Design the sequence.
């Protein structure tokens, strides 16, 4: 599946649908203005000129618009914390990183594996413990502040593969940029509904009191009634638009989940269980309709008008074209007679081991991963290994490191240890930098973690950063900044910037800054590729040079990238400067302003340069992951 083409298509339709919200607001304003003019306006009398109603109508328009806009902004601001705020608004509770509960441990493992495979930091994980239905959602403004929330029904009823399919579906919403729109839809719905709430207040406090005092409450009562009627009618149509926006994205999310996991049985099995079980995907929380558009399944009993998802059978048949409805009955019968032993009884706190296969041998892709390289992408077989590779990397992480990155202070120490040089002559200066910034106690922990890192596979460095990210976000802002500044000092201690060290520092800085200010996360740009020509040339040159041992090979890899990005153009090769870091980062910031199709072409060009020699090194894989994070793009399957 082409993420970028689907992003462009679905976002275009979503923009049109959001435009309908604007039309709905205009219609509401016109309706309220008509009621105000009828009840309070100046009407012409015989032989007398009527005073102008423009000031009255202008005031009415501004009040209604102001009420909707301010209420929407208030609701959106209340969710300024991103995914965490949305999850807590529906009563979800955070899943502890060191949980010993087998179901929650399995959930964490699955989410961490999907995050590694998709090249994004591990999101905050939440559970709706009182919800027996099978449902889930992802929320946030960007990958750096995302939260994934599942119901207890998911844990109780889904196998590991099915849970994996549901989580992959939610991650596709993260990568497709759906989350920011989802939060704004919540604000718009609230802003329109507020009109009805205000109308009830006007009738109760305004119309009733005026009527008792001087008998003049009829006009106020009429305006209050109009606010109620128009508010609920507007809310009705807003719900219709909400459902249309959601439906336009759910088919993409189902297909994307298959792309992540490379199998349809998981997500199809979850959808079948929703169809079979009496609870289905329904939620019991009071404000379920507010988040209906971001859920895995319908929040309530099916209603064709307000359905936020395609019908279940349609979704299943899109995944399994030969599926027949009668199979649901046989599946329900088999579930009733099957032994109901917990599916994850063999799960331990060790992450990454698939359930239901006790003592499973090491995945065949793991030796190649641990050797520090992977075959170049070459078709379905290479793509199919992407998720398996992520699970293998996750499984192979040393237990001590997996435990350490679950807690803020020890995660900080692991990040500092990752930046320590293997050259003995540089280590004393680096130890002084750490001690000056954090003290001798942290330095001692860093040295302990450095010993543990000796057993870590090189390809697992950035996945370890992704797993540590939820803990690092919990550090105070000042301590986060000190960490970033210290990392910069550590990587520059020898007067040069090593590629691995640069990738670590750049990735953490980018993601922690976005997590601190989630609402300022970048949105899709509007620039076309020719506008960023120089930036494309420089980034491709840096990537080509990083993957080649000599300038001739680098020039060849760079020319392949240029043919992909600017076919038919004659462009002169210019080696990247010795001090490449600053211009490289400026170029990445420039490319982040590209339109999604242009970003796709950049990523394709970089992939062509990386694959020029037929091998993807660890350094190239890490650099590509950092570039994709900087451009807010999914990492392509390798």
Sequence:
């Amino acid at each position: 599946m082409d993420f970028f083409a689907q992003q462009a298509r679905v976002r275009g339709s979503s923009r049109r649908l959001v435009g309908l919200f604007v039309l709905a607001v205009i219609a509401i304003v016109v309706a309220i203005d008509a009621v105000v003019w009828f009840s309070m306006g100046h009407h012409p009398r015989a032989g007398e000129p009527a005073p102008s109603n423009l000031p009255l109508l202008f005031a009415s328009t501004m009040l209604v618009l102001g009420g909707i806009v301010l209420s929407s902004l208030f609701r959106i601001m209340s969710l300024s914390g991103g995914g965490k705020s949305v999850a807590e608004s529906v009563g979800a509770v955070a899943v502890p990183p060191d949980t010993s509960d087998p179901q929650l441990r399995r959930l964490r493992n699955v989410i961490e594996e999907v995050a590694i495979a998709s090249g994004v930091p591990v999101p905050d994980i939440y559970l709706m413990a009182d919800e027996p239905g099978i449902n889930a959602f992802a929320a946030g403004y960007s990958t750096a502040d995302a939260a994934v929330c599942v119901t207890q029904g998911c844990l109780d009823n889904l196998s590991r593969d099915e849970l994996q399919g549901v989580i992959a579906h939610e991650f596709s919403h993260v990568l497709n940029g759906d989350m920011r729109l989802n939060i704004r839809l919540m604000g718009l719905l609230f802003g329109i509904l507020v009109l009805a709430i205000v109308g009830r207040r006007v009738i109760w406090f305004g119309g009733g009191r005026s009527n008792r005092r001087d008998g003049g409450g009829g006009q106020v009562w009429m305006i209050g009634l109009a606010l109620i009627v128009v508010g609920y009618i507007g809310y009705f149509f807003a719900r219709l638009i909400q459902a249309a926006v959601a439906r336009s994205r759910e088919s993409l999310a189902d297909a994307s989940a298959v792309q992540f996991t490379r199998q349809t049985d998981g997500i199809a099995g979850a959808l079948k269980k929703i169809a079979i079980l009496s609870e289905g995907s329904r939620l019991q929380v009071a404000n379920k309709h507010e988040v209906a558009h971001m859920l895995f399944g319908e929040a309530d009993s099916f209603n064709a008008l307000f359905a936020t998802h395609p019908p279940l059978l349609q979704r299943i048949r899109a995944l399994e074209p030969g599926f027949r409805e009668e199979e649901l009955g046989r599946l329900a019968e088999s579930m009733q007679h099957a032994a109901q032993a917990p599916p994850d009884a063999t799960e331990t706190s060790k992450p990454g081991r698939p359930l239901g296969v006790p003592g499973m041998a090491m995945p065949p892709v793991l030796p190649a991963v641990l050797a520090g390289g992977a075959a170049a992408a070459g078709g379905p077989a290479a793509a199919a290994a992407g998720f398996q590779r992520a699970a293998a990397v996750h499984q192979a992480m040393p237990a001590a490191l997996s435990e350490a990155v679950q807690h803020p202070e020890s995660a900080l120490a692991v990040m500092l240890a990752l930046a320590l040089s293997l050259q003995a002559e540089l280590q004393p200066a680096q130890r002084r930098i750490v001690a000056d910034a954090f003290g001798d106690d942290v330095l001692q922990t860093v040295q302990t973690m450095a010993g543990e890192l000796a057993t870590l596979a090189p390809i697992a460095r950035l996945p370890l950063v992704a797993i540590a990210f939820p803990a690092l976000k919990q550090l105070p802002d000042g301590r986060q900044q000190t960490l970033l500044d210290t990392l910069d000092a550590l990587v520059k201690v020898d007067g040069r910037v090593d590629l691995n060290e640069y990738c670590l520092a750049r990735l953490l800085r980018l993601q922690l800054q976005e997590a601190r200010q989630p609402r300022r996360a970048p949105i899709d740009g509007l620039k076309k590729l020719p506008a960023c020509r120089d930036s494309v040339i420089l980034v491709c040159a840096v990537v080509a040079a990083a993957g080649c041992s000599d300038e001739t090979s680098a020039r060849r890899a760079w020319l392949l990238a240029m043919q992909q990005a600017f076919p038919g153009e004659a462009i002169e090769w210019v080696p990247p400067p010795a001090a490449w870091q600053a211009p490289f980062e400026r170029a990445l910031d420039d490319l982040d302003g590209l339109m999604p199709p242009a970003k796709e072409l950049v990523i394709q060009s970089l992939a062509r340069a990386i694959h020029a020699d037929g091998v993807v090194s660890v350094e190239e894989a890490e650099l590509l992951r950092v570039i994709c994070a900087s451009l807010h793009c999914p990492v392509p399957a390798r």
